[in-house]
Amino acid sequence: MRCPYCSELENKVIDSRMAKEGNTVRRRRQCLACNSRFTTYERVEHLPLVLIKKDNRREPFNREKILKGMQRACQKRNISINTLELFIDNLERELQELGEKEVPASMVGERVMRKLQELDDVAYVRFASVYREFKDINDFMSELKDLFVSRSPSPSDNNKN
Question: Mapping DSSP to helix (H, G, I), strand (E, B) and coil, where does residue 61 land?
Fold first, then answer.
C-alpha cells in the first residue's frame, strides 16, 4: 500500500479491526519513511455477476433493478423495504456462492417470485403478470387458480381434527 503523503511503499500495520458487520477490515498503517499514519479498508472482492437474459443477452446483476421491480409489485402492500433489501442481499450472496460468472436471469426471476408468493399473494400476482408476460385475462386467471389451489388446504388436512 502506497503512503498517501509521500508515496513510499514501505509501511507497517499498527492496528486491525472489523468494520461494517464483519464484511470489512479496517487497518491503521504507519509509513516507514515519513511516519505518517493512514487508514485502509480491506474487503472480499466478489466476481462481477452477469445475468443471461431470455434472448441470450448478457446484463450485469443490478440489485437496484430487482428492488424497483419488487417495490412496484409491493406497492400499497404491507411489506417493508428492509424485508425486500434483506432478500436481495441474501439472493446476491447465494448467487455469488454458486461460483459462476454467469447465471440465467430466469433463476433470479423465479426466486423473486417465490419470495413474493411467500410474502404477499397480491404482490406475487403483480410481479408474475409482468415476469411471465401474461397475454390476456386467461393467463391471469390461470395463475390465480394455481395460486388458490396451492393455498387451499387439502381434504386430508380437514380430517386431522
Answer: coil
Q: Which three cell numbers stand for residue 74?
A: 409491493
pLDDT tens profile 47-103: 789 999 999 999 999 999 999 999 999 999 999 999 999 999 899 989 988 888 999
Do 32 and 71 lie in a common domain?
no
Residue 52 phi, psi dihedral angles, 5° rounding: -100, 115
C-alpha 3 chain-centroid distance: 36
pTM over 0.70, yes/no: no
73 Cβ partners below 8 Å, 6+ apart? 116, 123, 124, 126, 127, 130
Domain co-membership, 35 together with 68: no
Our count of domains for the chain comes to: 2
Place of cell 500500500: 1
Short-list 109, 143, 108, CA closest to 125? 143
Residue 5 lies in a domain: no
Identify the CA nearest to 41 among candidates 65, 67, 22.
Answer: 22
Strand partners, 98: none
Reported as type and span, the H/E element at residue 140 is helix 137-151
Nearest to 120 by CA among 94, 151, 142: 151
Task: Tell me how far apart the alpha carbons of residues 161 and 159 are, in angstroms, rounded to a whole number.
Answer: 6
